[in-house]
Specification:
Elements lengths: L1 E6 L3 H8 L4 H10 L2 E5 L2 E6 L1 H19 L6 H11 L5 H8 L3 E2 L4 E2 L4 H12 L2 E5 L6 H14 L5 E6 L15 H19 L2 H10 L2 E5 L11 E5 L7 H8 L7 E6 L13 H9 L5 E5 L9 H18 L3
Parallel strand pairs: 6-10, 6-11, 7-8, 7-9, 9-10
Antiparallel strand pairs: 1-3, 2-3, 4-5
Helix pairs in contact: 1-3, 2-4, 3-4, 3-5, 6-7, 7-8, 10-11
Length: 321
């Protein structure tokens, strides 16, 4: 059992940090298996050496948040723990938690160290692959950066695309015209946009062609310039589809390709274009690749446990994906 004592300098901010009946500290205790005492602006943490170091760093991150006027909720506490996972020092953790994507409706901060790395890679590289399970924020953060860059005037257009392949279903058997057939597959992209921009602005930009949401097949034969292009569910592309998509990249554009190689819905025996592209492009300059894991899942806590259980079985039976 180790112990650490320290002081925070603003009593008002400390009260906001600890929460009603010290609820935020109690949550930190539960997650990290430590004991935290708060006496005015003085704090005491007891536990294993590594746990108290992470708890101290998480408290530094939360103190930095409240000093910027950000309310500390349960989700902020959990995000602080994820940001500090992996023995990040206080300064590094605060730098990661300070990354922000500004949209009309909200400011979006990374909820894990991997999310922060992902945002940095998207800002730095013209092409980024985001790999990992659902619920890790891959598509959400890519859309947020695209909206942020459009609002700053750095790009003229946002293009969001998915292959029309889902869980073995066939579009031809769905009712309605083409738009009605594909809209359900593209709904997660619409949902992300409506969380970042007022609905009337989203609808106007779609009508003007400044935001385009379309199946992957619609990308053929085009050159996409001055655009932020996102391909979602990329594990369900074929190698030829992936090559077609990647070669659409034009001047002053960025591409983000997201997928989960454990959720391929292509016919048995068909090679995933995402896996193929990762093999071919490995080591190519100006291409980033970020892998998310179950620890980065930001949905309900049970989702992370479900994802982790599937990951462990996959490693045992099929090798590490």
């Amino acid at each position: 059992m180790a112990e650490i004592n320290f002081e925070l300098f603003n009593n008002t901010l400390v009260q906001q940090l600890v929460g009603p009946q010290d609820s935020n500290l109690r949550l930190l205790e539960k997650i990290l298996d430590v004991e935290i005492g708060s006496f005015g602006n003085k704090m005491n943490i007891k536990g294993s050496a590594s746990a108290i170091e992470q708890a101290k760093t998480a408290i530094d991150v939360l103190y930095n948040k409240v000093s910027k006027g950000i309310a500390v909720t349960d989700e902020e506490v959990k995000a602080a723990v994820r940001i500090t996972d992996g023995n990040a020092d206080s300064e590094t953790a605060q730098d990661l938690s300070n990354i922000v994507l500004k949209t009309k409706k909200r400011h979006i901060y990374p909820r894990s160290a991997t999310q922060a790395l992902y945002i940095q890679e998207m800002m730095k590289n013209e092409l980024v692959f985001g790999l990992g399970p659902a619920g890790t924020g891959k598509t959400y953060l890519a859309v947020a950066l695209a909206v942020s860059m459009m609002l700053e005037g750095k790009i003229d257009k946002i293009i969001l695309s998915r292959p029309a392949v889902e869980a073995g279903e066939n579009l031809g058997f769905l009712p309605g015209d083409l738009k009605e057939k594909v809209d359900p597959y593209l709904r997660p992209l619409y949902d992300a946009l409506y969380e970042m921009l007022p609905a009337e602005q989203v609808d106007k930009k779609i009508s003007l062609g400044e935001i385009e949401i379309a199946p992957l097949a619609f990308m053929r034969g085009r050159t996409l310039s001055n655009a932020f292009v996102i391909l979602d569910e990329a594990q369900n592309t074929t190698p030829m589809q992936m090559k077609m998509f990647l070669t659409r990249l034009g001047e002053n554009s960025r591409m983000v390709v997201n997928g989960d190689l454990s959720q391929v819905d292509l016919p048995r025996g068909t090679v995933s274009g995402l896996r193929d592209a990762l093999d071919i492009l490995k080591g190519t300059p100006n291409i980033g690749s970020v892998r998310f894991s179950a620890s980065d899942v930001v949905r309900h806590g049970l989702v992370a446990k479900i994802v982790k259980a599937y990951e462990e079985r996959s490693k045992k039976e099929y090798g590490d994906e």
